[in-house]
Design a protein that fits this description.
two-stranded antiparallel ribbon; alpha+beta; about 70 residues; globular
Length: about 70
């Protein structure tokens, strides 16, 4: 689901570009899509796919239920 592009507000202004990840030699921009994760208690999490960047580059830790739901999906 496209919501408009976004750059990371946490990165230094000189490094603010659209983050790109590589998956099997394919480059994917993580700037505009949204993901949804369904928790075991019925809670639904919605997050930008930029979350991958926040976790890998800025050590953000989502709620445990979110993590467990992703691992069991």
């Amino acid at each position: 689901m496209k919501r408009g592009f976004h750059v990371c507000d946490v990165c230094e202004s000189s490094q603010r570009e659209i983050p790109v990840i590589e998956d099997r030699s394919k480059k994917i921009k993580v700037d505009y899509a949204e993901m949804r994760v369904f928790g075991e208690t019925g809670r639904i999490y919605a997050a930008p796919n930029l979350l991958f960047h926040y976790i890998t580059e800025h050590h953000y830790k989502p709620p445990n239920e979110f993590i467990q739901s992703v691992l069991h999906a």
